[in-house]
Amino acid sequence: MLRLGVGMLDWREEGAQKISSAPLLLVPVELRRGSDRRCRLHPADNQEPLHDPALSVKLDWLGVDWNGVNGTDVSGVSAVIEAARAVADRTAGP
Fold this sequence. Notes:
Order of helices and strands: EEEEHHH
Number of strands: 4
Shape: elongated
Helix content: 25-40%
Structural class: alpha+beta
Number of domains: 1
InterPro entries: DUF4011
Pfam families: DUF4011 (PF13195)
Radius of gyration: 16 Å
Largest sheet: 4 strands, antiparallel
């Protein structure tokens, strides 16, 4: 099983020149070969998407309150992205 990163968050730490990125959600997928011999991504059976736990740890370390995003149902990608935008708008620097 693979996890597909969905909805990227970009940020730059104070004093850093490089931008960091991480997915908001990790969606479990499988590669399956079709009758045409081409591989395609399919949702993994009996697996649920989840919030990126490493992103939560990093943002906590940076002092960003990410609870509004982590409390959003992962089945609605748009809702997770909207919640992340709301947090980003509140924490955007000068």
